[in-house]
Specification:
Shape of chain B: globular
Oligomer: heterodimer
Radius of gyration of chain B: 19 Å
Low-confidence stretches of chain A: none
Order of helices and strands of chain A: EHEHHEHHEHEHHEHHEHHEHHH
Structural class of chain B: mainly alpha
Mean pLDDT of chain B: 94
Largest sheet of chain B: none
Number of strands of chain A: 8
Strand content of chain B: under 5%
Structural class of chain A: alpha/beta
CATH architecture of the largest domain in chain B: Orthogonal Bundle
Number of helices of chain B: 11
Largest interface: A-B, 55 and 61 residues
CATH architecture of the largest domain in chain A: 3-Layer(aba) Sandwich
CATH topology of the largest domain in chain B: Fumarate Reductase Iron-sulfur Protein, Chain B, domain 2
Order of helices and strands of chain B: HHHHHHHHHHH
Shape of chain A: globular
Number of helices of chain A: 15
Number of domains of chain A: 2
Number of strands of chain B: 0
CATH topology of the largest domain in chain A: Rossmann fold
Number of domains of chain B: 2
Chain lengths: 299, 190
């Protein structure tokens, strides 16, 4: 199984642990990742706020490079995934758009192959059965709120991934890893995305609500599949505590980190110490790291 | 708001409204004002007009009022409204089109969001990728809040999450050329 890999800017910066853990679990599960050489930024919301054509052309250049290799593209970042999908859909849907994009990027892009969220590659490509069979350190007793956010599941005709209101794909993954997904109402509520940075005054409230509801649902932690969701939920907790007189110390994980833990990798290798909220005390309290089947650390 | 004679307002703004409809692909008349978009909007609490009201303004021809609203800048593009709309009105694309018109008309009411997007794209055009530390520093300086989030910097830096140096791609100017070609078609005004 080989994919073109589009990490996107965040995975080379604030989401280094997502990148590291994604590569580790892919390798462990026999998924070969070919990082698109000299990939460029997808433009994110800044591009589609500014110009529709720019927002399609920036991702299309990356897709054109992957298309030359005849590979499907695996995308860990939910926002990049959404933008790459949008570019592909626009090119597939209109001959005129295909020609326009070709002119703008100076490369032919036909819209072939699939753009897949890295989560989809793991759960539906590799398969939960295989993942489950390789778990050596089950997440027993860990109650997890699976937080999907927006762009992984919406709009559904674009992402084609799961139910847009009550998605299950990450909950099923948590189960396969031996953890317990909780039922909660804020799975797909927006975290305010880049407004948390550009308008922190209003951007903190949506994040606060997500943390509050995750905690109220009985979860020990939140698992995410998006670098911006992660940054907002993890890095902003100190500010949220000050603003809303709370005392959150709520660990946030990338799903690839939980996979890496369950597959037996040391937390440090997966980048877990890089979080703002240290997730290790929780894993220790649940005795997940001391599970007798721990492979690499006892070897 | 002053009393208005709506048929003349509509006549004055017809061309502008057509342009917004064309840019967004949204037919304003599709909306029957059920309010589902606004009930589920995560940012509605911070808006002056909720999303439903923005469409209502447009339906009445009050395009300027929509362009001056804070709403169009506060939309987070989360796609909840569009996913739930029984009439499939693409509100996020409508908000985009209104932002672009607002920039064109010099009516940017939320300088911070605008400056953030500009700094973001500037970074992409220069390096091919976003240089997050440079983006935040530029945004903080331009928006007059030089010390915003500085407390987070050391932890990010020590964990290798931000770097003072941008990663520049070797694309032989391909990304710059994309920006230039889009601009030559009248887009990417920033």
């Amino acid at each position: 199984m080989k994919y073109a890999y589009y990490p996107g800017c965040s995975l080379h910066a604030t989401a280094v642990e997502y990148n590291v853990s994604a590569k580790i679990v892919a390798k462990h599960l026999g998924v070969e990742l070919w990082e698109i050489p000299e990939w460029n930024c997808c433009g994110a919301s800044a591009a589609h706020n500014t110009d529709h054509l720019l927002a399609l052309a920036l991702p299309a250049r990356n897709l054109a490079i992957a298309e030359r290799e005849g590979l499907d593209v695996a995308v860990p970042c939910a926002a990049c995934f959404n933008r790459l999908k949008a570019a592909q859909m626009a090119v597939r849907g209109s001959e005129e758009m295909r020609n326009t994009i070709k002119e703008i990027i100076g490369m032919d892009y036909q819209g072939q192959g699939e753009v897949r969220a890295f989560l989809d590659v793991m759960v539906n490509g590799v398969g939960l059965e295989k993942i489950q069979s390789l778990v050596t350190r089950p997440l027993t007793g860990l109650k997890v709120a699976a937080y999907y956010g927006c762009l992984l599941v919406r709009p559904p005709e674009l992402t084609g991934l799961d139910d847009p209101e009550d998605p299950q794909i990450m909950d099923r993954l948590v189960e396969a890893l031996g953890g317990t997904p909780v039922s909660w109402a804020f799975k797909t509520e927006c975290c305010s995305a880049s407004l948390a940075t550009s308008r922190t005054d209003i951007g903190l409230l949506p994040i606060f609500r997500i943390l509050k509801h995750a905690k109220a649902s009985g979860a020990d932690c939140i698992v995410v599949a998006c670098p911006l969701c992660f940054l907002n939920l993890d890095m902003r907790q100190g500010e949220i505590n000050r603003r809303f007189q709370e005392n959150f110390n709520f660990p946030i994980f990338y799903f690839t980190e939980l996979m890496g833990i369950a597959l037996g990798y040391p937390p440090k290798e997966l980048g877990l110490p890089k979080h703002f909220v240290n997730p290790l005390p929780l894993l220790e309290a649940k005795e997940i790291l001391r599970h007798p089947a721990t492979r690499r650390e006892t070897a | 708001m002053e009393p208005l004679e709506l048929s003349s307002v509509m006549a004055q703004n017809r061309d502008l409204l057509k342009r917004v409809e064309k840019r967004s692909g949204v037919d304003i008349k599709d909306c029957y004002q059920c309010g589902k978009c606004s009930a589920g909007c995560p940012m509605a609490f911070a808006m002056d007009y909720v999303p439903r009201q923005i469409i209502r303004l447009l339906q009445l021809g009050l395009v300027d009022e929509a362009l001056r609203s804070r709403t169009i800048w506060i939309c987070a593009h989360c796609q909840a409204c569009y996913t739930r709309c029984p009439r499939e009105v693409d509100l996020p694309r409508l908000m985009e089109a209104l932002r672009q018109e607002a920039v064109r008309a010099g009516l940017v009411t939320d300088k911070k969001v605008y400056l953030f997007d500009r700094a973001f794209l500037g970074s992409v055009e220069r390096y091919g990728r976003v240089h997050e530390m440079g983006l935040i520093m530029q945004f903080n300086l331009q928006s007059g809040q030089p010390f915003k989030d500085v407390g987070l910097g050391p932890t990010l830096f020590l964990n290798g999450k931000i770097s003072p140096f941008p990663s520049r791609i070797k694309d032989n100017g391909a990304v710059k050329a994309i920006f230039e070609r889009v601009r030559s078609r009248g887009g990417a005004e920033h």
